[in-house]
Amino acid sequence: MSPEKDISRRDFLKTTGIAAGTLVGGGLIGGLVGYNMPGKGTATLEHGQHGTATEETGSPKAKMFFMNQRDFNILANATERIFPEDDLGPGAKGLDVPYFIDYQLAGQYGSNSKEYMHGPFGEGAPTQGYQSRLTRAEIFKQGVQKLEAEAQNRYKKSFNDIDGTQMDEILTAFQKGEVQMSGVTSAFFFSLLRAATLEGAYSDPIYGGNRNMDGWRMKGFPGHQMAYITQIEDPKFQKIEPNSLGSH
């Protein structure tokens, strides 16, 4: 890790407009957090076994939306390029961001059930917000398939088999709107993917992401404390071990 990249990462964690505190309320991308909250219980695990969710992790390693492991891995690799692991802490995969997005797509966030989804469907201005006739679940499913198609067209390999630089090239093409998608622009899909990645990294672990609250630790965010009565009058900087909703 070069000093330049280290500074860039630190600057991102400190100054990103999507602060950990704002994410808890789910104000971003249609109130993503809270649309589907995996509860305690049993679920089919990634390797076909069953397990019980714990308060610490918030949910077992189970997929609820992506039934195809290849597609789930494409999503995971794309989020890791957006939020990579480095010397400051884990990346999207280490924070369980792909599972967070998977859970949200399986719920009301993915179905847009709390939003007006009738026509007419014109091409809206950037300030007009969500304009597609497609649900987020449909957009993500198509977007993942397009990521795979672009990798096959450019490199004759699966997106999961190309290197990081090649993944970045494809994701940049999506960000610039250069990839043709149906019912939505690739730039809009990328904006959803990036926003959901950040929200999964910083939301409460009870929603499936931010494993072990490591996203909060990188921010120095204390999470959900019962009270600050023992620290509030101390003039010194307080480094507080974070708490999640599941620990109360």
TrEMBL record:
Key word Hydrolase present: no
Ranges annotated as spanning the membrane: 12-35
InterPro entries associated with the record: Gluconate_2DH_su3, TAT_signal, TAT_signal_bac_arc
Keywords, comma-separated and alphabetical: Membrane, Transmembrane, Transmembrane helix
NCBIfam families, alphabetized: TAT_signal_seq (TIGR01409)
Protein name, per record: Gluconate 2-dehydrogenase subunit 3 family protein
Source organism (scientific name): Lysinibacillus xylanilyticus
